[in-house]
Amino acid sequence: MTPYLKLIVSLPALLVLASCSSTDNTTKTDTVSDTNANNSNSESDKVLRIAAAANLAGVLPTVIEAYQAEVIYHKDGQNKDSQNTDNPKPKIEVTYASSGKLFAQINSGAPYDLFLSADQAFPAKYAQQQANTKSPVQAPFTYARGQLALYSSNQDLSSIKTLDKTSLQQLFITQPNASGNTVKITLANPELAPYGASAKAFLQQQGIYYELNDSKRLIQAENIGQAFQYAHTATTDYGFVALSQLISAKVEPSKYLVLQPESYPAILQDGIVVSEHPKATDFSQYLQSESAQKLFADAGYLPIAKP
User: Fold this and answer.
1) Gap between the terminal Cα atoms of the chain
2) pTM
3) What's the pLDDT tens digit per position in 20-55?
4) Which GO annotations describe the biological process of this protein (predicted)?
């Protein structure tokens, strides 16, 4: 057979081999692509991202630590540490800010999985937004009830038995501060921070808010964390802060007064799952558990009503 004929005979076989090779490469590429996608999803599931109100900075790390160390009980009665199971607890990353700021970030597409607000309004608003777009959404849940306190890092408040209009006027208006200047009081932005809104409502109820505001004695902080820093560093003379912050910082009890819970709107704190992360619901349920609620109580929160 001539070389020319040999080439003609061999050509169909080469085409068949090339076709098979092309098919195999396409299949492998698709498989690798699917595998990479699955690995990407698996990696993202290993991190739970929480948007948390600033007042939680003192207690949430402890709650997270307890959650990740929680012992899982199996149907056979045996227990195994959560980190050694086939479905381990995720790494948890937390961003702290005012509830209003976090709500705006979530609406702008920030990649959070769980939103822990300092009020009930923002989670309810998020749920309503999702319902309007017919997107699946879980109902908000209450995980804590905050307490408000008046704090001064350079004043002894132990002699004051109750905070009413008379005592507040004496503290804020009648007597100057140690430098002889006008007293300054900080509270978190009432438009963004529920603790600030409750502090404003308390001062309004006492009939003293507008007098303080008009005389520029009130210094507005971005969130409750910043309000605490202003008071703690004596940037302001007094601050309306979360009791949990004072307990976390181990502040002497003589430096603060806890407001009566009935003297301001209840600071019921709700959370809501904002993604499909498989562990977001699991952690939200843990927040409502007896063990987590004990940690919240130790940190200065009031018990939440059982559903």
Assistant:
1) 91
2) 0.74
3) 444 344 333 343 444 444 444 555 678 999 999 999
4) molybdate ion transport
Residues 141 and 275 placed together within one structural domain of the fold: yes
Residues 243 and 274 in one domain: no
Token pair for 163: 């905070």
Distances (CA, A) of 151 to 46, 66, 162, 218, 299: 40, 29, 14, 14, 16
How many angstroms separate the CA atoms of 292 and 69, rounded? 12
By CB atoms closer than 10 A (0-12, 13-18, 19+), residue 53 is buried
Place of tokens 């090779």: 21
Interatomic CA distance for residues 115 and 94, integer angstroms = 10
For 164, the token pair is: 């009413």
Bind-site residues for molybdate: 99, 224
Q: What is the overall mean pLDDT for the chain?
A: 84
Domain, as residue range, for 208 = 148-258
Express each pLDDT in 245-286 by its tens digit: 999 999 999 999 999 999 999 999 999 999 999 999 999 999
How far apart are alpha carbons 202 and 63 in whole angstroms? 30
Residue stretches of the annotated binding site: 99, 224
